UniProtKB/TrEMBL annotation:
Keywords: DNA replication. This is J domain-containing protein. It comes from Desulfosporosinus hippei DSM 8344. The keyword Transferase does not apply. CDD domains: DnaJ. InterPro entries: DnaJ_domain (IPR001623), J_dom_sf (IPR036869), Kinase-like_dom_sf (IPR011009). One of its GO terms (biological process) is DNA replication. Residues 6-87 form the J domain. Coiled coil: none annotated.
């Protein structure tokens, strides 16, 4: 809800639920307090009259909705499942993607796939559940980078919903890039590329190709220098298996042979990572070996590429140092 001490925030409110609680008596008391604070006869601030009108209009809207039982609130979506159960989500941001809609909240990421994409929904669940680990140490290291489905269901209208657990320190990589106005400092990009390369090594170990490693599907923790790959699993296939699809920007960097054969190849994921690096840097000046690696074609195995990258890092920056990134969910999403 809006901060009632912020007149501009009140003016920006769109729905009655942005200002009032979803309970008639509580909303009435909130309205009374707001009127006391912003009535032009008491408040001589220049914005007071406009704020008062907004308060009054939204309360009138609230009374109508209380009567009809149809409450409205910004950044809230309610799902009705096929079993006639209701699930409510308060989200921070929503984004369209090629198969449906994505919702980012503090504790979850939700993907809603359109009805015709059932096979992608099922493939995501299948591929994530198939991930294997050589030992407990490997599991402890990698499982936090991949989706943990806390709910999955079909809606009454036939859409397919995946609910993935998320920690507050994780923000969508695309949103982090927007926060930095389209360019991230090269040393920070370097640790992100290292984390993605590590994920690729694990996928290669499992014989998988993700086919969806992108700014939209990766979530980054600036605080902990970690990256989680939450989206895109609907495109994941075994190496050598027929591809199910990919995003356009990934298709554009796929090798000619992969495009011809239309089969899963780890080089697709490796080229996707290099693409991410180029986009995050946005032509920023980097050491020559760094730039050469970004432009060179990917190796035929994730391990080979990771070894190449480690050599590039040593040549570019010497001994690794932890660089703090003073930004998080609050800053990125203006909370």
């Amino acid at each position: 809800m809006v901060d009632i001490n912020n007149p501009q925030g009140i003016l920006a409110a769109v729905k009655c639920g942005d200002l009032y609680s979803n309970h008639p008596l509580k909303a009435k008391e909130e309205y009374r307090l707001l009127v006391q604070k912003y009535h032009p006869d008491r408040n001589k601030e220049t914005m007071a009259e406009d704020v008062f009108l907004k308060i009054r209009d939204l309360y009138a809207q609230a009374e109508i909705l209380f009567e009809s039982g149809q409450w409205e609130e910004s950044n809230v979506i309610e799902f009705k499942t096929k079993e006639d159960k209701f699930k409510r989500l308060k989200f921070i941001k929503e984004f369209p993607f090629e198969l449906g809609q994505q919702y980012v909240a503090s504790s979850v990421v939700v993907y809603v796939l359109e009805a015709e994409h059932k096979r992608y929904f099922e493939n995501a669940i299948k591929r994530v559940s198939s991930l294997r680990y050589e030992n407990q140490a490997m599991e402890d290291e990698f499982e936090r980078y991949f989706p943990k489905f806390i709910d999955k269901f079909e809606t009454a209208e036939g859409k397919w919903v995946l609910v993935i657990k998320k920690t507050k320190d994780l923000v969508r990589l695309h949103d982090l890039l927007d926060y930095y106005l389209g360019r991230i400092e090269p040393r920070h990009v370097a640790w992100m590329l290292s984390r993605l390369g590590n994920i690729c090594c694990y996928l290669d170990y499992n014989g998988l190709v993700h086919n969806g490693i992108s700014l939209e599907n990766c979530f980054v923790s600036p605080e902990n220098h970690a990256i989680a790959l939450f989206g895109g699993w609907w495109y994941c296939v075994g190496q050598g298996e027929k591809m199910l699809g990919t995003q356009k920007q990934i298709y554009d960097v796929m090798g000619p042979l992969t495009k011809t054969n239309k089969t899963g190849s780890i080089t697709t994921d490796l080229e996707s990572i290099k693409l991410i690096g180029r986009v995050l840097l946005n032509k920023a000046q980097v050491p020559d070996s760094y730039q050469a690696w970004l432009e060179k074609g990917a190796a035929d195995s994730a391990r080979k590429e990771f070894l190449r990258w480690n050599k590039v890092l040593r040549n570019s920056y010497g001994v690794r140092k932890f660089m703090r990134m003073e930004v998080g969910e609050k800053e990125v999403y203006s909370l």
